[in-house]
Design brief:
Layout lengths: L2 H10 L4 H8 L3 H8 L6 H9 L4 H4 L7
Helix pairs in contact: 2-3
């Protein structure tokens, strides 16, 4: 994940870590740990994708068809 770009994107969209945590039913501390690079979270990655975060920020692997 490109953490800096994700944080910029969240700021531009006015999305708070608290909002992400509520949608995931997790604590804001868990989201913070992921966005600061201490943990990984596929559900958070998927949520960000569904919210429109660019794939290149999330290092999404392209699957061959």
């Amino acid at each position: 994940m490109n953490l800096i770009e994700i944080k910029k994107w969240l700021l531009d969209k006015r999305i708070r870590q608290k909002d992400l945590a509520a949608k995931m039913k997790r604590t804001p501390g868990t989201v913070s740990a992921v966005l600061n690079g201490f943990r990984t979270s596929r559900p958070l990655r998927d949520l960000l994708l569904n919210m429109g975060c660019p794939e290149e920020f999330l290092d999404v692997e392209k699957r061959a068809a």
